[in-house]
Amino acid sequence: MKHGLLSDITSQALQVALRGTAARQEALADNIANIDTPGFTRTTVAFEQSLRAAIAAARRGGGRTGDAVESTLIQREKDYASPRRVDGNNVSIEREMTALARNALAHQAVGELLAGRIRGLRAVIRGNRG
């Protein structure tokens, strides 16, 4: 059980979201790098649903720490549902580039939210003296 300034549910959720968007960025880059690899199956990263469930469980439990949230599973999965080209590859550059842009924005937003929490904590610790 972690105890610290960033062990609350919100801070833990933001940290998980950063790890999740970073993992998704790696998967998307891998997909793009393999766009011409015959038989390649694209991968996706899912974590939002399990993060929402962990947050809800932590809040129901009345705990002040984000331990359950911190252990949220960030899962990389093969995408067998997307249509394949003749060469067996199912990477679509349009889909990957759109997802890459969306993920980059999400990562930046989460990073800024977490940085804002840290700045707020610093201000409180310093007594707003800068």
Structure description:
The protein is mainly alpha-helical and 130 residues long. It has one domain. The chain contains four helices and two strands. The chain has helices at 9-33, 48-60, 67-70, 93-126; strands at residues 43-46, 75-78. A two-stranded antiparallel sheet has the order 1-2. Helix 1 packs antiparallel against helix 2 (48-60) and helix 1 (9-33) runs antiparallel to helix 4 (93-126). The longest helix has 34 residues, at 93-126. 18% of the residues are buried. The model has no long low-confidence stretch (mean pLDDT 89).
Number of strand elements: 2
Structural class: mainly alpha
Strand order of the largest sheet: 1-2
Number of domains: 1
Q: State mean pLDDT (0 to 100 scale).
A: 89
**Uncertain residue ranges:** none
Could you give a short account of the major beta sheet? 2 strands, antiparallel
How would the global form be characterised?
Answer: elongated
The percent range for strand residues is 5-15%
Radius of gyration, CA atoms, in whole angstroms: 18 Å
How far apart, in Å, are the first and last alpha carbons?
A: 32 Å
Query: What order do the helices and strands follow?
Result: HEHHEH
Q: Number of helix segments?
A: 4
Helix content: 55-70%
